[in-house]
Here is the input.
Amino acid sequence: MSTRLLSSAAPDRVAAVWDAEGLGILEGAVTGFASAADLLDGSAWANARREEIADRVVDVIAVRAWHVLPQLSHGRARRVARRCIAYSLAADTVRADGSGTARADCWTLTTHALELLTIREHFDAAAHRSRELLGVAPRGRLLAAWQMVDDALGALGTTRHEWVGADPATVAAAGRVLVDRMSRLLMAAALVAQSAAASAGDAELLVNAARRYAWNHLRRPAPEAATPTHVQRSADLVHAFLTPGSIP
Here is the structure.
């Protein structure tokens, strides 16, 4: 479905559409991106392009792993998880097809999710749900994906105090980093769980996807919140750029 005009709608409306239809929107974008790939072309250009396509494919696989879980199983994390996942659906759509509307929706969805993530109960519920889905360490190649999720969960705890109780308007400056991290943790943990329970015929593909997804999205520093000083410095940079002669 087209996302035209969503960016001008109320945050609840934007989030509701991405929650209900985001997987289909992303699948369509990735299908369009992948359809032009020549699987028989072994050139450097083709290999590089297929690598990016494969990254977008595992984004879809991770969302699917999340969506097959019963909504009620998320317990207290259900509401905040929906908002975080909606953000990542829009962000991944931008990566797949460059959608300007989806990019604008990302800002709306970031602030919408931060309304909850700055509240202790919601922040902790999302982190706990990721830990719950991750479960115990598996054996074999899936262990690498499990370890990356586990490490990212540990890192998240080191900056929790910067977000919980903070002013959403201030931390929104770097808020997409937290919203993205929470959503990736939830989906990566869901994909690890699905891979661990998969039949022999599906396991290899899912394990490869879980490893790639965690590698792409979770091997980063802990999400740090913006401060009022940072917000002001960003405003100063933009003002200087728009003022002729202000930047050397």
Remarks:
- The mean pLDDT is 93.
- The chain is about 75% helix and 0% strand.
